[in-house]
Amino acid sequence: MTEAISGTRDGQLIPQGKSSPMVVIERLTRQFGKVRAVDNLDMIIRTGETYGLIGPNGSGKTTLIRMVVGLVRPTSGSIRILGNTMPSAKVLPNIGYMTQLSALYLDLTARENLQFFSNIYGLRGKEQQRRIREMLERVDLVERANDIVGNFSGGMKQRLSLACALVHNPRLLLLDEPTVGVDPELRRSFWDYFAQLNKEGVTIIVSTHHLDEASRCTRLGLMRSGKLLAHEGGDTPQELLQQAGKDNMEDAFLHFASRTESMGSTKIPEVPQ
Ligand SMILES: Nc1ncnc2c1ncn2[C@@H]1O[C@H](COP(=O)(O)OP(=O)(O)O)[C@@H](O)[C@H]1O
Ligand SMILES: [Mg+2]
Fold first, then answer.
1. Which CATH number belongs to the domain containing residue 206 in this structure?
2. Which atom of ligand 1 is the closest one to the Cα of 72?
3. pTM of the model
4. Which of 17, 149, 158, 251 makes a 20 to 30 Å CA pair with 101?
């Protein structure tokens, strides 16, 4: 992907500065034995975006996110965040990460979990207590703050996971399938909350296989077999639909997948739900 492409939206050049690059990924590859989980990927995510990584299971979303966070080392290629090559201790306090599988401690209370994660990020004293209270309010868990998380419903655990990822007020938030197993109402309220965070200036990278969530992203990376399926004609949801000549993202995804198929890949696409 070139600067020129990622710097356009609806055909307009985004002014430099206002949407400066937050994450710059170049020729990124991660090999696990014979599996190339991420395959020579180029990507630029600009400050203030909600960038959606959309793709079926096994397409490399988690590996990509874990490399951005610094938990998995690239086999080759590079990631820069705010100009710093990752992994970088300087950048870490600015990153929030919600894992695909809950990282919560089930034998601790909601408040103790928030305390634990905020300790890791160096929050202390009154500021720490203020942030914990604020996060409990934002995810509507004030009344359950002192209950053991093991007894929580799936939706409550997801809400608390999100709170833990946000307690240190990060500028870049990575969400790995935050709405898996979440009922439609909560799914909507999660996305409303992401939009709110985005307005507050938080840059979001979110993976999902719910294609109906794609329209809530500013740009999309359609992923399969560790590669992006389409971006040459722009990568906003509208541009991708237009390029595919479809009126919904599911058909558009299949269009791009089958086009790649005819270009030589032998893997049958797993139809995302
Ligand atoms: N730690 C690992 N060891 C071996 N293979 C892995 C590991 N992590 C991921 N993979 C493989 O890499 C590919 C991409 O996986 P993943 O990044 O989890 O995709 P997604 O999040 O899109 O489901 C899969 O084939 C998966 O089995
Ligand atoms: Mg995953």
1. 3.40.50.300
2. 1
3. 0.86
4. 251
